[in-house]
Amino acid sequence: MNAADIECAQRLAEAAGNAIRPLFRGDWSHECKDDATFVTEADRSAEAAMRAIIERTFPDDGIIGEEYGLRNEGAGRQWVLDPIDGTTSFIAGRPIFGTLIALMQDGWPVLGVIDQPILKERWIGVLGEGTTLNGRPVRSAPCKDIADAVLATTTPHQFSGSDVDPFMGVAKSVAERKIIYGGDCYNYALVASGHVDLVVEAGLKLYDYAALVPVVEGAGGLMSDWQGNPLDAGSDGRVIALGDPARLEDVLEAMG
Description:
256 residues
């Protein structure tokens, strides 16, 4: 990791934000993709802007993008892009979506950005260097008991089949009044800043979670799969984010 990588990530976030802001709460159409998720003009223009910068700055690096797919697939360094994580919130005019930018080295996330372009909040996590929000260090919060945890997840509808019982096990372990629904990547940013204790989700793609890992872990938290293993390019999309790593065993026990 070097200063040029971080500077490039900052430029990517700026370019995406410049593409997104003029369209927020604007008049445009959206489409439903084959996987039943939505895509907008903002998603596509933001990713195109980021890809152009990477191709100019690091032409040998790979790119994995939600909207435009793979470039230089075999490269050891891969930029992983989700131009709008939380497109439904964007469509609804709710500023809790985010642009996700990750740099992966040999399949492991080493740099992550969560950028909220409307609120102008930018979390940057760098392996071994901590996490900042708009340039200031942030830390996740200690949590002495899972019963006291604030639990967040984007929607209960993401859990089906054998995923239902593990999530419900965790939900029953916390106070009902402390469960938050909605938020997508913004929930993980709130873990890094110490406002949310726990996120449990399923069905995520690499571009949904790669950027989150350095942000959460750089703030002192932990991210893992549902077996407690670190997240990498081969993870199955079932994720746990914890502000206090000491609560991992409690969460795994609650999942059964």
